[in-house]
Specification:
heterodimer, A: alpha/beta, FAD/NAD(P)-binding domain, Arc Repressor Mutant, subunit A, five-stranded antiparallel beta sheet, 38 strands, about 20% strand, elongated, B: about 120 residues, mainly beta, four-stranded antiparallel beta sheet, globular, Nitrite reductase small subunit NirD (chain B), iron (chain B)
Chain lengths: ~800, ~120
């Protein structure tokens, strides 16, 4: 990796391609990403892990010799001789020989079933052996050992043990308390951890059967991975007489020169100031220093912060600065949550002004910020614990100035060592998106950990330049959704064409058309297929049904609160049988009828409407359903009649179009059977009335709704919902659910509560009026279509063969119903 | 009634429908033998386009139900299934260069009647 990085850096510094670069490697493939080695077992291939393909070397005129290690260096003649017999001369030689696994001298390490964890070949051997193993053991509870343990889990060995000689895991990074939390967390994930264990022998004839420990205990095992540390590959350096450390490593100076000034050593084989730097970031920094030095710029390596953050088997572990400052030189703040398995400790100077270092287990979101705070000696807020816990209720204390408060030299991307100043300069030069900044500076391209900070810097720098950052809709409308809504409202515009004439240009597209359609529907609640607005609706809205695989549609009649009479159930059954529809109960207590041909839709709805059904708006960014539990009418725990209230609410907001779909629920007691707290607005009965929760979400990023107001009577509850929904409709970005909207809202729930409950903006009367106008204007849009021959005509597949169905539609049978033929 | 009115340069112009049968700034699907052709009316530009109805992405007969639009002035259609967009000038997929292009056809209007030009040689 470090060798590759050196090539990359030297190439970018060579203005003319005069230098000849030759790379010798012992392994059979080009440099690969060892940091993510364990992903090899999680499905990545050896190719995925390559830093760059062999073709990259060709393109950059680098001669690459693989599977051909250098065996001899002649320092007088300045030549190297390789295993396959190649002799090359050099001006400068860079040794990036890395390290090998350190195998402790335990009797029996040569038995079958004992592995080391270092190269892709090692991993291939492990993979081939793993199917016959039931019980795996890893010797070494450090960073690499835990990685190896994860590899065993990934290989399907559920019974995996980790043996550590020291009294704690990761002894170089974390403290005893942190280790206990980590051990706990890892054992929940199936790893059994044994600390304070000294392995004295590996048992078995030819093949391993177990381990013997110095304390006379023993452990059965049929596969063992040794990952007890690394040993620098300095044998070649020794051979040609370069100075090496007595515990290994090629001695280098600040320019990474060995005792021969024409030979450099970088990465894990280099010994600087008595220390081996076994992380990738310092290795890259060394590559940078050597590339500069050879091309004539003076840079030096003066040690490197060994702060690190990683995810071990799904658990965040980070340590930064000096995590082990003694108590006499520091004070510490510790936070421990044994329930969640979170441990955080920071050490601060005795005067409370600066952060010295710390450890984070289980939740390392704050790592980047803390690291920068420590590294740049940023002055801490008056309550230093705020940097760990965030500013808490009651005080308005500021939890530090954030990434924008850092000095320009602060290193944001430590993999590529890109400073805050460099990133801000790139933004000022016009690189105003993350991709542009990545391309221009390389920040965030390696591990990606700094990406949130880079994003904050982009926004912050643009704001500082006086640039107003807003989300314009698309190339046709240079307004945000909120601005456009206000304009359309003010100017009383009723169609997309008018909106485009007044406030846009060009012809519109699939982005702005549905946005404007949604705004028009939210403001006026006219029939969405009228005034030429039919073709600006999303396909589902245009045909008032949900398009499904194969091009048929599904039909969802409204079943308010999930309550339905047997007679109506019968109608649904009859319609489904008549039109051969697949039926399924939805998550929102309704019935979905799938597989309807476009031309059958008006006939289907004619029958449903005749039986008293109306549109369920399952196709729209609109109110979907208000789910309910059975409530006090039947349930022995029910406090109020949740079904009646759910029906009342669903009928009030039916057909209401919004920036995104809206879901709701009413629960009759705190048992919460209707799951109201996962909805955009949810209501739960209390002894005294209703509690109103808002901005919850299921889906891919579930979020609990937050209590907006408690113990409301039904009328007040509805008024609050009116205000809440109208405020959301008027201010949200396109396709933003209430949860995301709230997350982005400055001031969050406190602000929202002030607007909706305390009327801090003085708009609640308007909001209620506007909502009432929409409610009063509601009509079932399917009823309007069914009654209009002109509108019905649009529900045909062929314009020149009305009634003919699409012959390409095909179905298959599954469990006595039809299903769409799968697409390719 | 014959659907074919003229043949020139190996292009067969067939009568598809009348102008008012096609919604402004929208599309319809035209049956031509066993083929399905999507016909689009860009009313704001007074332009007409036609393409295959099948979206090549998942091979769905759906483009006629998609949303029309332009990108830097170039007319395009967005498939209702996954919003892949195709140029109606040359048929290439704008949103995903790796996706197959679609076939486009010329359109002619005469006396409020819409004609689509298909390759005479490959008529089915």
């Amino acid at each position: 990796m470090v060798s590759y990085k050196f090539c990359e850096k030297i190439i970018s510094r060579l203005t003319t391609n005069k230098a000849e670069i030759v790379v010798f490697g012992e392994e059979p493939r080009p440099a690969y990403d060892r940091v993510h080695l364990s992903e090899f077992f999680a499905g990545k291939t050896a190719e995925d892990l390559l830093m760059a393909p062999a073709s990259w070397y060709v393109e950059n005129n680098i001669r690459l010799h693989l599977g051909d290690p250098v065996q001899q260096i002649d320092r007088t003649a300045k030549t190297v001789h390789s295993y396959k017999g190649i002799t090359e001369s050099y001006d400068y030689l860079v040794m990036a020989t890395g390290s090998a696994a350190f195998v402790p001298p335990i009797p029996g390490v040569d038995k079958k079933g004992v592995f080391i964890y270092r190269t892709i070949e090692d991993l291939e051997l492990m993979r081939d052996y793993a199917p016959r193993a039931k019980k795996g053991v890893v010797i070494g509870g450090g960073l690499l050992g835990l990685e190896a343990a994860k590899a065993l889990l990934d290989l399907g060995i559920a019974n995996t043990h980790v043996i550590e000689f020291a009294p704690r895991l990761m002894p170089r990074q974390i403290d005893d308390s942190g280790s206990r939390v980590l051990e706990n967390k890892l054992s929940q994930l199936g790893l059994q951890i044994h600390t304070n264990k000294n392995t004295s022998a590996i048992l078995g004839e030819d093949t391993i059967t177990g381990l013997q420990f110095a304390d006379d205990s023993h452990l059965d095992a049929d596969m063992l991975v040794i990952s007890a540390g690394i040993k620098p590959r300095d044998e070649l350096a020794k051979l040609c007489g370069l100075e090496t450390g007595h515990r290994g490593g090629i001695v280098v100076n600040e320019q990474l020169q060995t005792t021969d000034p024409f030979i450099y050593a970088i990465g894990e084989c280099a010994l600087y100031n008595g220390m081996i730097y076994g992380l990738v970031a310092p290795g890259y920094e060394m590559a940078e220093v050597v590339a500069s030095h050879i091309t004539g710029t003076q840079k030096s390596f003066t040690g490197f912060d060994m702060s690190t953050k990683l995810k071990l088997i799904g658990v965040d572990v980070a340590s930064f600065g000096d995590p082990f400052v003694s108590a006499e030189h520091s004070r510490s703040v510790v936070f421990e949550d044994t329930m969640k398995g979170v441990y955080k400790r920071i050490s601060i100077t005795p005067d409370g002004k600066h952060l010295l270092g710390g450890i984070l287990i289980g939740d390392a979101d704050a790592y980047n910020m803390l690291l920068q705070t420590a590294r740049n000696k940023v002055v801490l807020p008056p309550n230093p614990e705020d940097v760990l816990l965030g500013a808490r209720g009651g005080s308005s204390a500021d939890a530090g100035p954030g990434v924008l408060g850092l000095p320009d030299e602060a290193v944001i991307c430590s993999c590529e060592s890109i400073s805050k100043g460099a990133i801000c300069a790139a933004v000022e030069a016009g690189n105003e998106t993350l991709d542009a900044v990545k391309k221009c500076t390389k920040a965030g391209t390696c591990c990606g950990g700094c990406v949130p900070m880079v994003k904050d810097l982009i926004t912050g720098t643009m704001k500082a330049q006086g640039k107003y950052i807003r989300n314009v809709i698309c190339e046709h409308f240079a307004y945000s959704r909120q601005e456009l809504l206000d304009l359309i409202h003010l100017k009383q515009i009723y169609s997309f064409d008018e909106a485009l004439d007044h406030y846009g240009h060009g012809d519109g597209c699939e982005v702005c058309k549905p946005v404007v359609a949604s705004i028009l529907a939210s403001l006026w609640n006219d029939l969405i297929l009228d005034k030429g607005n039919d073709t600006v609706q999303d396909s589902n809205d245009r045909f008032l049904a949900n398009i499904q695989k194969g091009g048929t549609y599904s039909v969802v009649p409204r079943i308010p609160g999930g309550e339905i009479t047997p007679a109506r159930l019968l109608v649904i059954a009859q319609v489904a049988m008549k039109y051969n529809l697949y039926t399924k109960i939805t998550g929102g207590q309704r019935i979905d009828l799938f597989g309807a041909h476009l031309s059958d839709l008006p006939d289907i709805w004619e029958e449903l409407i005749a039986a008293g059904f109306e549109s369920g708006h399952a196709y729209g960014k609109a109110l979907r359903t208000v789910k309910s539990c059975v409530g006090s009418t039947w349930c022995r725990f029910g406090l109020h009649d949740s079904v009646s209230f759910a029906i009342q609410i669903e009928e009030r907001y039916r057909g209401l179009r919004a920036p995104h779909k809206l879901k709701s629920a009413v629960s009759g007691c705190i048992r919460e059977c209707a799951e109201a707290q996962s909805k955009d607005f949810g209501i739960i009965a209390t002894e005294k009335g209703w509690n109103l929760y808002v901005c919850g979400n299921g889906g891919s990023k579930p979020q609990h709704a937050i209590l907006l107001a408690s113990d409301l009577d039904s009328e007040t509850c509805i008024r609050y919902i009116d205000r809440f929904l109208m405020f959301y409709i008027k201010t949200a970005d396109p396709l933003t659910r209430t949860a995301t909207w709230l997350n982005k809202l400055d001031g969050g729930i406190t602000y929202l509560r002030n607007v909706v409950v305390n009327d801090s903006l003085g708009i609640v009367e308007d909001l209620e009026k506007e909502m009432q106008a929409l409610v009063d204007k509601y009509k079932c849009e399917w009823k309007e279509v069914v009654e209009s021959p002109e509108l019905r005509k649009r529900f045909n597949h062929f314009v020149n063969a009305p009634g003919h169905k699409d012959p390409s539609i095909q179905f298959e049978t599954m469990r006595e119903q039809k299903k769409a033929t799968d697409w390719k | 009634m014959s659907t074919t009115i003229a043949t020139e340069n190996a292009i067969t112009w067939f009568y598809a429908c009348n102008v008012q049968d096609v919604p402004a700034n929208g599309g319809v699907c035209v049956k031509y033998g066993e083929e399905q052709i999507a016909l689009f009316r860009f009313a704001r530009r007074n332009e007409w386009y036609a393409s295959q109805n099948e979206c090549p992405h998942r091979r769905q007969m759906a483009l006629s139900r998609g949303m029309t639009g332009t990108q830097e002035g170039e007319p395009k259609i967005a498939c209702p299934f996954h919003k892949k967009t195709f140029s109606l000038k040359d048929g290439r997929c704008i949103s995903d260069p790796a996706e197959c292009a679609i076939t486009t056809y010329p359109v002619r209007i005469e006396n409020d009647r819409v004609y689509i030009g298909v390759d005479g040689a490959s008529e089915c």
